[in-house]
Amino acid sequence: MHEPIRQGLEEFLAGRHAPAPAPADQENFQRHLASCPECRDQVEAMRLHQSMLRELSAPESLDPAPGFYARVLERIEAQAAASSFWSIFLEPSFGRRLLYASLVLLMVLGTAVWNTPSGPSMDATNPVHIMASADLPAATGEDPGRDRAVVLTNLVSHSEDGGVQSLPVSSD
Length: 172
Hints:
Layout: H1 3-14, H2 23-35, H3 37-56, H4 68-82, H5 92-114, H6 127-133, H7 144-157
Helix pairs in contact: 1-2
């Protein structure tokens, strides 16, 4: 690039935004551009680059449009009002947790049922069985202290082999 073009290039590319160069400098610049194809090509390439850079520049205002914050708050309030207790069950993470908890509960209950003895629940050592099957003196209900003593004595006097030992019942 030649000297007259180097001197006036910035003002030429700035257009109206720069202060106007002196008329003599402007004439020299224009005359040299008209006569020198190399400088003319370089200036055109710079003008093209300048226009591309202007297109890539950010807009003047990056502020949101008027009412943006109000619309965001309205949308948040609408979504909060629309959510109900039952919407929790529609969330995928809650559904997975509920599924896993149900499977664990099913396994625990299955294990409990599997390990439960299948024999009779009323064996000879069960107090209900002792009271129901033996011929023991009855508690009449007239004296609560005596009735309690009779029941306890009946339970204690029952032997392991199924027989009944007779023990005296105290009357106190």
